[in-house]
């Protein structure tokens, strides 16, 4: 695997491609440059939407959309596209808006150097996280095991069926192609890193509600940064919903800055909600 660093000036499509590799769908359909992702057990938009990075050559937009809509509706999913300033073809977002596709979940893609994240350990004593966490330490696993999944479930505060989602998420993780590091502070917090082409992607960052505001996330981020440098990766990226002010503030304090954004366009007439 080529771990040459990718600069921040590279196209946003590079980071979106890396993120797609770190959240691999169960089923993938290729449609004239688009990648249609479908994962029935996991209600994640990233694993159930169209990645619109490559320009098509054989079909016009109406033809591509018609095929995509039929495939998703036949699979029981609402047609949904991940859209950003680099999406193809040009004018895709406006075209979808005219068709009644609604905007969902705007996301900021943020980046940092590993050096900047590691430097957060040099803060003043009042800001340094409680490194002991009641005697617990950060555990490293080459792959998420039952101990990691148990902490992940404990930390999850969503209203989704955690047991079912956890099993499906484990199946998704087993499909990840890039190198993976699973971090856990048992009962306190978890994170995942995906290392590819000089970048470390940050995923599944969760802290148990009883342990928030104690520097858990910063400790996990620093450990991922250290792992990145150990493997020749000196940049990090993550994705955070634009309206999640608490998470965005945390990541800014850890050295991350916004690189670009994307959002989803979902066909009218959908039912239910997805993460």
List keywords for this structure.
275 residues; alpha+beta; Aminopeptidase; eleven-stranded mixed β-sheet; 8 helices; 30% helix; disordered N terminus
Number of helices, where a helix is a run of at least 4 consecutive DSSP H or I residues: 8
Under CATH at level 1, the class of the largest domain stands as: Alpha Beta
**In terms of quaternary structure, what is this?**
single chain
Order of helices and strands: HEEEHEHEHEHHEEEHEHE
- Helix/sheet category: alpha+beta
Question: What strand order characterises the main sheet?
Answer: 1-2-3-4-11-5-10-9-8-7-6
How much of the residues is beta strand, in percent?
25-35%
Rounded mean pLDDT score: 83
CATH superfamily of the largest domain: Gcn5-related N-acetyltransferase (GNAT)
The coarse silhouette is globular
Report how far the terminal alpha carbons are from each other: 31 Å
Proportion in helices: 25-40%
Number of domains: 2
As a whole number of angstroms, the C-alpha radius of gyration is 19 Å
Uncertain stretches: 1-9, 123-131
Largest sheet: 11 strands, mixed
Please provide a written account of the structure:
The longest helix has 15 residues, at 216-230. The chain folds into two domains: 12-107; 110-261, Gcn5-related N-acetyltransferase (GNAT) (Aminopeptidase). An eleven-stranded mixed beta sheet has the order 1-2-3-4-11-5-10-9-8-7-6, with helices on both faces. It is α+β, with helices and mostly antiparallel strands and 275 residues long. It has helices spanning 12-22, 61-74, 92-98, 114-118, 146-155, 162-173, 216-230, 245-253; strands at residues 27-31, 34-38, 50-51, 80-83, 102-113, 139-141, 179-185, 189-196, 199-207, 235-241, 257-266. The chain is built from eight helices and eleven strands.
């Amino acid at each position: 695997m080529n771990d040459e660093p990718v600069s921040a000036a590279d196209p946003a499509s590079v980071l979106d491609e890396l993120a797609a590799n770190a959240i691999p769908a169960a089923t993938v359909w290729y449609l004239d440059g688009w990648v249609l992702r479908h994962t029935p057990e996991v209600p994640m938009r990233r694993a159930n939407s169209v990645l619109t990075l490559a320009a098509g050559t054989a079909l016009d937009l109406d033809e591509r959309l018609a095929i995509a809509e039929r495939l998703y509706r036949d699979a029981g999913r609402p047609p949904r596209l991940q859209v950003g300033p680099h999406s193809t073809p040009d004018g895709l977002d406006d075209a979808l808006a005219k068709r009644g596709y609604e905007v969902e979940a705007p996301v900021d893609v943020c980046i940092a150097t590993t050096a900047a994240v590691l430097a957060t350990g040099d803060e003043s004593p009042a800001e340094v996280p409680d490194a002991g966490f009641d005697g617990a330490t950060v555990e490293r696993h080459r792959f998420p095991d039952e101990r990691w999944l148990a902490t992940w479930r404990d930390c999850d505060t969503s209203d989704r069926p955690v047991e079912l989602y956890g099993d499906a998420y484990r199946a998704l993780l087993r499909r990840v192609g890039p190198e993976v590091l699973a971090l856990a502070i048992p009962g306190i917090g978890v994170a995942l890193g995906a290392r590819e082409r000089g970048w470390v992607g940050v995923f599944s960052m969760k802290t148990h509600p009883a342990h928030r505001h104690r520097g858990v996330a910063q400790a996990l981020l620093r450990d991922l940064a250290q792992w990145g440098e150990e493997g020749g990766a000196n940049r990090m990226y993550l994705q955070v919903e634009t309206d999640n002010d608490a998470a965005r503030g945390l990541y800014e304090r850890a050295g991350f800055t916004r690189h670009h954004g994307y959002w989803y366009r979902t066909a009218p007439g959908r039912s239910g909600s997805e993460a």
